[in-house]
Amino acid sequence: MLSLATRALCVRASSGGPGQVDLHPAQVPAKHILRAIELADSSAGLTAPHPNAGCVIAHGPRVVGEGFLYAQGTRSAEVQAVERARDLTKGAIAYMNLEPGDCHGDDSALTSLIQAKVSKVVIGLRHPLKHLRGKAIEALRAQGIAVVVLGEDLIEGDQLQDVSRACQLINAPLLCRAVQRLPYSVLKYAMTLDGKIAASTGHAAWVSSSESRRRVFETRGRSDAVIVGGNTVRRDNPRLTTRRDGGHLPVRIVMSRCLTLPDDANVWNVANAPTIVMTQRGARRDFQAQLVARGVEVVEFDFLTPRAVMDYCFDRGFLSVMWECGGTLSAPAIASGVIHKIIAFVAPKIIGGVLAPSPVGELGMVEMTQALNLSDVAFEQTGPDMLVTGYLQPVPALYPAVSAAVEQALADYITPSVKPPAVISFYKTWDLYGAFSNFSPHPIIVVDDSGKEIAWNSVEHYYQAHKFVGVEDPLAKDRILKIQFAASPEEAARLGRSFARERPDLLRPDWEEVKVEVMYKALRLKFTAYESLHRLLLSTAGSVIVEASPNDLFWGAGRTGAGQNNLGLLLMKLRAELQKETERNQNPVPQTDSAAVNA
């Protein structure tokens, strides 16, 4: 479901019902981009936050194809829209809320639009990430396709200004990451009509209605992580889950300097959702060891602050974070400038009490003129409650202040003609070297022992399934099929990891001995099947390649660099082999006279 502010902008920019086709020509771009925004939101809660991209292909007001990016590592919105339009794409116009391109090495979106012979592309927002910004636009124009970018190539009226704003809000997490180098943070709380989040005793179940709580579960599903403080764990003992089977499960983060936390908190059960405890260095080492033994990840900071935690979440690749803490933690989070949006549920209840806690603690303000004002405020009734949302700080905007040539010069893309950096890090698919990720949208074809070709949607699909290959058990075979046909690499990883934890007896007995070999086979298939990936890997000659996972100490380097970085090592091994093969092909060994005669 679109955020209230985005939905309000969409409604304001619309005229007439959704089935209206007799539009004025000036209304058509707005209508179709608004539809692309609506499509872009379709995967919310089902997968981890990622660039929100939708595409509509139309002849005038008539839509012939639609698509949206389901998750990182899945087929692009443009490919899906072209496929659904079939043979009706020639001369059509493609409308999208975001410039195509979410993984270097995957040019399927551009290829599909070019081959479809669309006459024009209308884009609501240039890609916020600098290494992708403007590349698709210039590539399409180089192929003779007209490209229009809102705010740059159209004369905006009020309607198109609303559309541009809606394009920004639907990708607010990506914009915050690109411009501010912070995850997009939402502070959520429920309070009574007199501004209390609990009674003076601390009892808080329940302030809001069941309808409001369902909305909270939906919002959690749109987040990479949910943050609470130690007081919330001690007082409420929350589970912080989405209360549903399947779909995305955010990481639960508990911030506590002293770790005076209960031994039996619900968040220590990591069977359904992971938990990270963030604390100050040296705090209760014995308790830390207990948590680690139960599968909880512990991260120590020299100084535990909201900003330090957000820097960590940024490094971890998080796009969106939800804060569900009390006033003691929400106040410093607001004061440190890491909170972007407020979601407040106001229940028609009065509880009173001078000592009853409020949602935000002391901010040091002594006059009402110092109050922080929200923008893009929207209201909605949820059951008996009132839902109020607004932005505490504006969503960053991208301004076309420089020419396309300068944009291209600013781009950080590494090509074989440019010396690569000494250390190349990658993690998420939208990173500069995100094509190295096992989640990248590059299917591989594997030939089995019988000569049959089997398609795997990503390296991650192949790797996770092979944890159970050869196990003669119906459950293991069923899990392999589920992983093979998982809709995204994220889902494949979740299916493989959870089953390995739940049924370690069904993990193939030689897995620890063969898993590196399995990974290398998949990587070789991937980087030899795609010429662009082959070139990209060879262009990194002389660089150390590091898989920058902060929590995987086997395949990645870990947060402190103490991990084994086996994925990076395999990529460098593969790079060396491909270099030798390329050299042999370019400089074949000449045959001797005797060899020529024998031939």
Structure description:
Keywords: Multifunctional enzyme, NADP, Oxidoreductase. This protein is α/β, with parallel strands linked by helices and 599 residues long. The chain has 3 domains: 167 residues, Cytidine Deaminase, domain 2, CATH 3.40.140.10; 211 residues, Dihydrofolate Reductase, subunit A (3-Layer(aba) Sandwich); 182 residues, Tetracycline Repressor, domain 2 (Orthogonal Bundle), CATH 1.10.357. It has 20 helices and 18 strands. The longest helix has 21 residues. The C terminus is likely disordered.
SS-derived structural category: alpha/beta
Number of strands: 18
Structure annotation, total helices: 20
**What global shape is seen?**
globular
Question: Which CATH first-tier class of the largest domain would you pick?
Answer: Alpha Beta
Low-confidence stretches: 15-22, 401-417, 594-599
Major sheet details: 9 strands, mixed
Provide the domain count: 3
Second CATH tier, the architecture of the largest domain: 3-Layer(aba) Sandwich
Strand arrangement in the largest pleated sheet: 10-9-8-7-11-6-12-14-13
GO molecular function: 5-amino-6-(5-phosphoribosylamino)uracil reductase activity
Enzyme class: oxidoreductase
Domain CMP/dCMP-type deaminase: 27-148
Keywords: Multifunctional enzyme, NADP, Oxidoreductase
